[in-house]
Every structure is written in C-alpha cells, then in structure tokens.
Amino acid sequence: MSQQLLMLRNPHGRADYTKEWTGDWADDSEQWNAKAKAELKYTPNDEVDGIFWMCNSDFLSQFKYVYVCRELTEKKGWYVKDISSAWKGPSSAGFPGKLRQVP
Predict the structure, then answer these.
(1) How far apart are CA 20 and CA 94, in angstroms?
(2) What is the DSSP letter of 3?
(3) Distance between CA 68 and CA 58 in Å, rounded?
(4) Measured over all CA atoms, what is the biggest interatomic distance in the chain, rounded to whole angstroms?
(5) pLDDT tens digits for range 3-27
(6) What is the pTM for the complete model shown?
(7) CA nearest to 52, candidates 2, 77, 97, 18
(8) SS3 for 98?
(9) The pLDDT value given to residue 33
C-alpha cells in the first residue's frame, strides 16, 4: 500500500450518535481489497461501530484539532477515589433560600 492509513475510533461508537467516514477507505470503499484487509488485519462491516480508516491526507484536511485521551487504569498504577455525598439544607448550592430543588 502506498498510502499511510490511520485507524480511528469515535469514542461514542453508538449508532444513534455516530456518523462514520464516507470517503476513501470507508467501510464500503472499493479500496478494501483482499491485500489491504490482510495487511491491516481488518474486515470492514456495515455496522455503525465508530471504527473507521482514513488516509493521512484526508485526516489532515478533515480535522483541525486532535485531542488525545489516555485511559488510566489500576493496572497502570492509577486508582479511583469515589466520594459519595448529597446536597443538604436551604443554602447547599451557595445561594441562601434559593435552588432548594438542586439534587
């Protein structure tokens, strides 16, 4: 393959929210021949699963900003601290006598 391809994933990955790429290397693209599928170990499907491929030049033309998020897990030395509490009293939201219905 002469093009550099990127596999991307929309973190929402839900059919009711996700719109997938429809250009070159979309799931229904003719560019997905047997060699490309084997080389990239990918089989395109018709599901809106949030996973899609783009060539480098399309990526650069479609996205102005990229935010990278790192998954922090206990296995990697991170931990979660969960504090359960509740809003109480007439000034719990910082406004005496107002916002008493704040959950």
Answers:
(1) 44
(2) S
(3) 19
(4) 69
(5) 788 888 775 555 555 567 888 998 8
(6) 0.54
(7) 18
(8) coil
(9) 92
Residue 50 pLDDT more than 80? no
Task: Please name which of 56, 68, 65, 64 lies closest in space to residue 23, comparing C-alpha atoms.
Answer: 56
For 44, the token pair is 């395109």
Amino acid at residue number 3: Q
DSSP 60-87: HHH-S-----PPP-GGGT----------
| DSSP class per residue in 9-73 | E-SS--TTT-----STTSTT-TT--HHHHHHHT----SS--SEEEEEHHHHHHH-S-----PPP-
| pLDDT digit string, tens, across residues 59-102 | 889 888 887 777 677 777 777 777 777 766 665 555 555 555 55
